[in-house]
Amino acid sequence: MIVEDAALSGLPAADPAGSAAIDVAHLVKLYKTTRAVDDVSFRIRPGSITGLLGGNGAGKTTTIAMIMGLVLPTSGRIQVLGCSMPDQSAEVLGRMNFESPYVDMPMRLTVRQNLTIFGRLYAVENLPGRIEKLAADLDLSDFLDRANGKLSAGQKTRVALAKALINQPELLLLDEPTASLDPDTADWIRRHLETYRKAHGATILLASHNMLEVERLCDRVIIMKRGRIEDDDSPDKIMARYNRTTLEEVFLDVARGRVQEGTP
Length: 264
What we know:
GO molecular function: ATP binding; ATP hydrolysis activity
Function: Involved in beta-(1-->2)glucan export. Transmembrane domains (TMD) form a pore in the inner membrane and the ATP-binding domain (NBD) is responsible for energy generation.
Keywords: ATP-binding, Nodulation, Nucleotide-binding, Transport
Oligomer: single chain
Protein name: ABC transporter ATP-binding protein
InterPro entries: AAA+_ATPase, ABC_transporter-like_ATP-bd, ABC_transporter-like_CS, ABC_transporter_ATP-binding, P-loop_NTPase
C-alpha cells in the first residue's frame, strides 16, 4: 500500500510547491521478495541537472519509472513539480517528458507522423510549427518523412530527443540518452541538452553509465547500489571523498565494495 499520510507514516513533510522539482521520501519498491528500490530519499532543485548512477540492477530505471507514475511504489512518497505522484499525475504529466534509446517509436510511421502523434497527446499548440522548429534545431529536416525503422542509431536518438522535447517540458527524465552513439553524435546530444536547460530553466534527471557525460553535464550525482543510495553530492566532492580523479574510478570503487578514501 502506498503511504500517503506523512504524519502517520513518519515521512518528512512534503516539499512546499515549487521549491523542489522532484521530492522523493523513503521510496520502496518490492517485487515479491526483491527490494528493487530500498528506502530512497532525495530532493532535486529546479533548473539543475542530476546524474543517477549505478550498475545494472541498482534501481535507477525503477526509480525513474516511479517518478513518472508508470510503476506504483510499495511505500514512500513522490512529489513532482509540486504534485503528488501518482495521484495527481494528470496535473503534471504534460509538464514532463522522458527519453530512452531502448524505447522505440513505431517503425513504420515516419518521423513527422510519430512527432505528430506525441504532440497531439500533449495537446501542443501550433504542432506543425513546433515540429519544424525541432527539425531545424535537431537536424531532422532531411528525414522527417522517412520511416522511423529506416533511420540510423544516431538519427533515431535525435528523433527520440525531439519527442521528449515536443511539449517543452519543465522536467526531463533521461535513461542512457547517448547509449551506443559515436562520440560526435553523443557530444552533439549533450550540447543540445545543456542549451535546452539554460534556455528554458528545465530540470533534468539523467540515468547513465557514461561517467564522462555525467561529469560534464551534472551539478549533482546520486550513486545507487542494490536499490539504496550510496552517495549523493557534486561530482567534485564525491571524487575528492573517494580520493579519485574521475567518476569512473568512484563507480568502480562502489561497484566492487571499496570504502571511501580510495582504499585499494
